[in-house]
Input
Amino acid sequence: MSAPLAAYSSYEFMLVTSPAPFVAHLEINRPKKLNAFSQQVWLEFGRVFQQLSEDSDVRVVILSGAGDRAFTAGLDVQAAATDSPFSGDKQELDPARKAKLLRPHIDEFQSCISQMEKCEKPVICVMHAVSIGLAIDISCCADIRIAAANTRLAVKEVDIGLAADIGTLARLPKIVGSTSWVKDVCLTARDFSAQEALAVGFVSQVHDTKATAIEAAQKIAVSLASKSPVAVQGTKELLNYGREHSTADSLRYTAIWNSVALQGEDFPKAMMSGLAKTKPTFSKL
Amino acid sequence: MSAPLAAYSSYEFMLVTSPAPFVAHLEINRPKKLNAFSQQVWLEFGRVFQQLSEDSDVRVVILSGAGDRAFTAGLDVQAAATDSPFSGDKQELDPARKAKLLRPHIDEFQSCISQMEKCEKPVICVMHAVSIGLAIDISCCADIRIAAANTRLAVKEVDIGLAADIGTLARLPKIVGSTSWVKDVCLTARDFSAQEALAVGFVSQVHDTKATAIEAAQKIAVSLASKSPVAVQGTKELLNYGREHSTADSLRYTAIWNSVALQGEDFPKAMMSGLAKTKPTFSKL
Amino acid sequence: MSAPLAAYSSYEFMLVTSPAPFVAHLEINRPKKLNAFSQQVWLEFGRVFQQLSEDSDVRVVILSGAGDRAFTAGLDVQAAATDSPFSGDKQELDPARKAKLLRPHIDEFQSCISQMEKCEKPVICVMHAVSIGLAIDISCCADIRIAAANTRLAVKEVDIGLAADIGTLARLPKIVGSTSWVKDVCLTARDFSAQEALAVGFVSQVHDTKATAIEAAQKIAVSLASKSPVAVQGTKELLNYGREHSTADSLRYTAIWNSVALQGEDFPKAMMSGLAKTKPTFSKL
Amino acid sequence: MSAPLAAYSSYEFMLVTSPAPFVAHLEINRPKKLNAFSQQVWLEFGRVFQQLSEDSDVRVVILSGAGDRAFTAGLDVQAAATDSPFSGDKQELDPARKAKLLRPHIDEFQSCISQMEKCEKPVICVMHAVSIGLAIDISCCADIRIAAANTRLAVKEVDIGLAADIGTLARLPKIVGSTSWVKDVCLTARDFSAQEALAVGFVSQVHDTKATAIEAAQKIAVSLASKSPVAVQGTKELLNYGREHSTADSLRYTAIWNSVALQGEDFPKAMMSGLAKTKPTFSKL
Amino acid sequence: MSAPLAAYSSYEFMLVTSPAPFVAHLEINRPKKLNAFSQQVWLEFGRVFQQLSEDSDVRVVILSGAGDRAFTAGLDVQAAATDSPFSGDKQELDPARKAKLLRPHIDEFQSCISQMEKCEKPVICVMHAVSIGLAIDISCCADIRIAAANTRLAVKEVDIGLAADIGTLARLPKIVGSTSWVKDVCLTARDFSAQEALAVGFVSQVHDTKATAIEAAQKIAVSLASKSPVAVQGTKELLNYGREHSTADSLRYTAIWNSVALQGEDFPKAMMSGLAKTKPTFSKL
Amino acid sequence: MSAPLAAYSSYEFMLVTSPAPFVAHLEINRPKKLNAFSQQVWLEFGRVFQQLSEDSDVRVVILSGAGDRAFTAGLDVQAAATDSPFSGDKQELDPARKAKLLRPHIDEFQSCISQMEKCEKPVICVMHAVSIGLAIDISCCADIRIAAANTRLAVKEVDIGLAADIGTLARLPKIVGSTSWVKDVCLTARDFSAQEALAVGFVSQVHDTKATAIEAAQKIAVSLASKSPVAVQGTKELLNYGREHSTADSLRYTAIWNSVALQGEDFPKAMMSGLAKTKPTFSKL
Output
C-alpha cells in the first residue's frame, strides 16, 4: 500500500495516498464511525478537494471509504443531535430566526460536498459496503461511479424525517435516466444493490470485492493520468457545463474554451504522437 | 374491495377508494369507453387531483383505469369530433381567430392533466391493457410507473395526424434516458410492451397481472404512508424542481425549503425513533 | 441499389439516393479516406442537410457512411494539419489574435454539423464499422441511432489532445441516461461496442451487418414517410424543444405550435381514416 | 357615467363599465375601506380578469379604484388579522405544518393578481391618491401605468414586517430601469410621488387629477380598440414573453406565433386600408 | 465625402465608405423608396454585416440611411404584397402548410437583421427623419443609438395588422428601462420624437441635424478605432452575453474569455502606454 | 467621528466604524494609493463583507473610500504588473497552461467582489472623487448608489487593453435601463459625471460633497436599521433573485421564502405597532 502524501498529512479524516504517478487516492478515514460525517469531516472534505483541484501533481482522484464496513454511513446523527445550530440558548428563537441560522449551515454543508464536483480533475468514486444517505449526495458529485458487489445503497433521508438537501435531489434526476426509479428510491428510502445501481446506470461497473473495485478504478485512473491534462480537464468541464445548459449555450462556451485550449502544446503533441505511433508525455497543468 | 370515499362521491368518472390508511386509489372510471377522455373527463381529472393534493387524509395516490380492458385509450375521438371548438358557426373564422379559440382549449386540457404532476403527494401510476395516446401524457405526470404484463403502450398521436400536446413531448425526454428510444416511439407511434418500457426505464416494475401490479403499488403506497409526510412531500417537490432547474438553483431552493421543513416535529421524531428502534407516527400535513 | 437523386448531384462527398418514396438515403462518400472530414466535407454536410430540410419530396433521411470500412473515422487529421487557421504567416500572432481566428473556425464546423439536428425531417443514423471522434458528434444530431454489430465507437478526441468541441460534450449528457457511462467514454476515449451502446441507450437497435441495419432503418423510414408530415415534423420539433426547455415553457410552445398545426388537413384526414380503417395519403409539406 | 356591464353584475367589489366600444373600465369598488383587499376581493379580482380576458367584446381594460381617496390601500390588515390561515386550533402546529398552510394561501393570492398580467387584452392602470403596498404589486401587472398628480405610492410591505410577496419584488426589477431606485423604495418603504414615478419610468404619464388621468387612459384605450385585435394582443403576448426569455428564444417563439397570426384577415385588411387611406374595421377575436 | 470601399462595391443597396481609419460607414442606399426593405435589401443587409464583422480593416461601424428623407421607412409594403410566400398556386394550401412556408421566411428575415447584432465590431446607429417599423427592429441591434432632432420614430407594425416580428418585441424590453413606455409605443404604434427617445434612454444623444448626428457618431467611432480591438470587441461580446444570461453564468463566461484575451499583446501594451503617457498602436484583429 | 469597531480591527485596508446602532460604515482604507486594489486589498474586501453579512449587530452597511481623493482608482496597476500570475519561470508556459493559471486568479478576484452582493444586509455605496475601473464593478454590487457631485466615474478597462471582468459587464446591463448608454460608457471608457449617472439611474441621489453624501446615506441607513431585519433582508434577497430569474420562478421562490418568514415575530409585531401607532423594536437576526 502506498504511503500517505506529505502535502495532505494535516487532515484528520482525509487520507491521501498516491498509488501511481499523478493519481491520488482519497479515503474518508473514520472507519470506527462507519466513515460518518460530522461538521469537521465535511469541512475537511471540502478543503481536501480544493487542494486536490489545485495540485498540479494530481491528474485523477479515486475516492473510497477507509476500512471494509462502509463507504460512508452518511450523517453522523449523534454529532448532529448534540451540535445543532439550535442548541443552547437559541431554542427560543422564532421560526424566521431559526431559518436564518439554518440556511448558512445548509449552505456550508452543500458547498463542502460540491467542492468534489468543482474539482477540476476527474473523480472516480468507489462505493462499497454501507453507502447510504450522504453517501449518495457525495457519489452524485463524482464523474465515474464504480461499486463493489456488497454495496448497500439507500437515499436514506426520508427515514430520518427530511428531504435530502446536500445534492441528491438536485443531481440524481440529471445523472440517471429513469425518473421512475429515481423517485422510487428517493421516496421510499429503500435499499438497493450494486447490481440494481448498474442496471439503471447509476454506477458503470460492479466488481466482486472492494479490492477489485479499487483495482478497476486505478486502471481507469492510470489511463487518464497518461493523457493530455488539457484535454481531460477540458472534457470534464464541458460535460458538466453541458449537463446544466442548453445545447446552444454549451456550443458557444465550448468554442471559447477551445479557442485557448487548442493553442496549448498538447494538441499538436498528441496528434503527432498518434501519427508517429509513439507515446506522448504531457507537462503539468 | 374498499368502499368509495365519501368526499369524492360527486365525480362521475373518477372513483376514489382507500385501500389503506392515508392511501387513495383513484380509478379513471369509464370502462365501457375504455376509459377514454372527453372534456368532462379531463375537467374532473384536474379537479380530483387538486382535491387529493389538499386532502390531509391522503398521503399517497395510486392511479389506474377501471376494468380490465384499458388504463385509458386516450382521447375520446368521437366526442372530440362532435364537440370541437370549431363546430357550428365558427367554421368560417380565419386561421388567426381559430388559433385564438384553440389555444385556451389546449391550455385547459394541459392544465387539467398537469394537476396530477402538481399534486403534492406521490402518485403511483399502474398501467394495464390499452394504454395509448393520452395514457402516456398522463403517466408522464406520475412519480412512479408500474405496469401489468399485458400493457399495450403507444404514443399514438402521430397516427391521428397531430403532435402530442398534452405533455408527452415536453416530459418524456426528461424522464427516460435514451433519446433514441424516445424519438423512435414518438415518431413511429408504434406499440411497445411493458417489458420494453421496463428495459428503457419508463416504468420501474412489471407484474404478471393488473391485480398483482396494483398490489405492488399498494405495497409501496403503504410504506410511503407510514413515513414523515414532511419528508416525503418535500422530496417530491425537490426532485421535480431539480429536474427543471440548474444544480445551483436547486441547491439554493433546497436550502430555503429545508430551513423551515427541518423545524417541523418530524425530523427529531424520526431521528429519535431511529436511534430508539421504535416506529414513529406522524401527524397530518 | 437506387440511383443518385438528380437534385443532389453537385456534391462531391455527399451521395443521396431514394430507396423509397419520400425517403432519402445520405451517404458520407469518401470511402478511401474512411469517410474522414476535411473542411470541404463538413461544408457539404451542412449544405446537404439544409437542402434535405427544405425539400418537400423528402420526409425522412437515413444517414450512413459509404463502403464497409467506416461510418466515419472523424476529423481528417492530415488535412487539418496542413490547412490550419494558423498556417503560413499567422504563426506569429499573439494568443488573443489566434483565438480570434480559431473561434469562427470552430463556429463554422459546429454550425455545419448542427444543420443535421436542425433538419426538420427525422434523421435515422446507421452506424457501422469505424465510428469514432466526429462520428459521435454527428450521430448525437440524429433522431434515431441504429448500429451494425461490427461498429467500433469511441469519443476519441481526448487522445488527440483536445476536448470534443463539435457537439458531443454538449449533447451526450442530454441523450443518454447514465452520466457515469458518458463521463467514462468521454474521458477515457476508449472503444465501445454496438452492444454496449445499445445497453446504455445510445443506440436503439443493433443488427448483424451494415446491410441489415440499413434495412431496419429503411423499414422505420418507410413507416414515417407514410404518416402525416405535419404530425411527424411537429413531433420532432417539439421533442427537441422539450429537451432544451422547462416543462412549462415547452407546454406553452406546444400550444402555440398546435394552434396552427391542428388547422391543417392532416388531423381530420388521419382521424377519419382511423375511424374508417382506411389508409390516408398526405399532401406535401 | 356609463352603466355597469350586465355580464359583470355579479361581482361585489368589481365594477365594470364600458365608456366606449370594446373598452372596459374596471374599478376596485370598496371605497369605504380605501379599496383594500380581503381574500374575497382578490378572488373576485382574479375572476374578473379571467372573464375580461375571454370576453370578445372587450379589447382594452382600464383599471382604477372607485372613489377619490385611493386606488387601493393594499391588504386589508384587519381582515387579514382575523381570517388568518393560523387562526383557531391551528396555532399549535409546528413550523413545517404552518408553512404547508401558508404556501397555498400565498399561491392563491399571487395567482389572483397574476391573472391581470395574463389577461390577453392590454390593461391600462390609472393610479390615484393612496396607492400603497398591494397597489404596487397590482400595477406591476399592467401594461401601461398612468398616475394622477395626487398619487401617493409606496412599496409598504417592509413596514408591516414582511417582504412583498404578491409580485412587486419579482416584477419591479424588470419593468423599471434603475435598480438603485427600485432597491431604495422597496427597502425603505418610503412614499414616492407621481412625478418621481414618472421620472424613473414606473408610470409613463402624470395628469392633474384622477379625472384627467382617466380621460388620458380612455384616449389610449379608444385608440387601441380601433386597431387589429390580432396585432394588439399578439404584441402584448410577445412583449411579455420577450421580458422573460432570451432574445434567441423570443425570436423563435415570435416566428411560430406569427406563422398563424399572419394568416388572419387583419394583416391584409390593415395593409390595404393603409394603402387606400381608409379606416379598417376588424372582426371580433 | 469619402469614396466607396472597393471591397463592398458589389452591393446594390448597401453603400460602404470609410470616413476614418478602421471606421466603416454603412448607408442603407435606396433613398427613392425611403430606404424601405424588400427581400433583396434584407439579404444584402445580412451579408454586409457578416463581411464587416470579418473584415480586420474595420473596427467600428456607423449605420445610417442614405439621403435626407429617411433612415428607413421599414418594410417595402408593395414589394411584400406582390412577392409573398403565398402568391400563385400556394393560395390553396391549408393553414398548417402555409405556416410551414411562413416560418423560414420569417426566420430568414430575422436572421439577416440579427447579423447586425452579431457583428463583432461596435455598431453606432444614426437615426434621422422617417424611422419607423423595421427601423426600430434594426436600431435595437445597434450598440449605441444617436438621433437627429427631426427623427420620426414609431413601432408601426400594429397599424399594418401584425405584431413586430423582426426583433423589436424581443429586444426593446431589454434595452429600455421603462416597460410602461415600451408597451405604450408598441401597442399604440404612435409616433415619438428624438427627444422622447432620449428621455427614456432609447437613444443616448440627439443632435440638430443628420449631419451633426453623423459627426457625433464619427467622433465616437474614431475614439473606438484607436483603442485595443481585443478590449473593445471583448467588451461588446461580454455586454451582449450579460444582457441574456444570469450574473453567475456571465462571470464564468467572462473568466474563460479573458483567460485568453489577457494573453494578447494589447493588455501589456495599453498598460505600459498608460504608465508612460504615450499613445499605443494596436495590430489588426 | 465614530471609533473603529473592535471586531474589525484586524484588517489592514478595511476600516469599519459604526455611526449609529446596527449601522456599519466600511471604508476602503488605502488613501495614499487612491484606495487602489492589490490582491491583498481584494482578499480583505471579500472577507470583510462575509463578516458583515454574518454579524447580527449589523443591519446596514455604508461603503465609501477613505480620504477625499478617491472612492477607488481601481486596480493597483503597478502591483498587478509585478505580482502577475505569469511572473518568474511561468513565462514559458503555453497559452493553455497560462489560461489555467489565469482562470482561478480571475475567479478569486470576482468572488471577493461578489461577496458584497451576497452580503445579506443592504449596502449603500457612496461614490466620490475618483471612481473608475474597479470602482464601477464594486458599486454594481451595492443595493443603493449615492454620489458626491465631484465624482469622476469611468468604466476604464478598455483603456488598459482589456474587457472589464470583475462584474461590470455582467451586471450593468441589468441595473441601468438604457443599454445605449451602458454600451457607450463601457466601449469608450469615457468619464461621466455624478449628474449623468443620476440622469440614467445608475445612482439615485447626488449630493454636494462627500460629507453630505455620506450624511444622506446615513439617513437611509438609520431608517433601514430601525425596521424589521426579517423584512429588510428578505426584500434584498427577493429583489436580487427577481433580477436573475423569470417572474414565475421568482413568485415560487418568494412563496417558499415567506412561508417561514411570516412565522417570525416581526410580522405580527410590526402590524400591531402599525395599528397602535407605536414604534416597534425588533430582535437580532
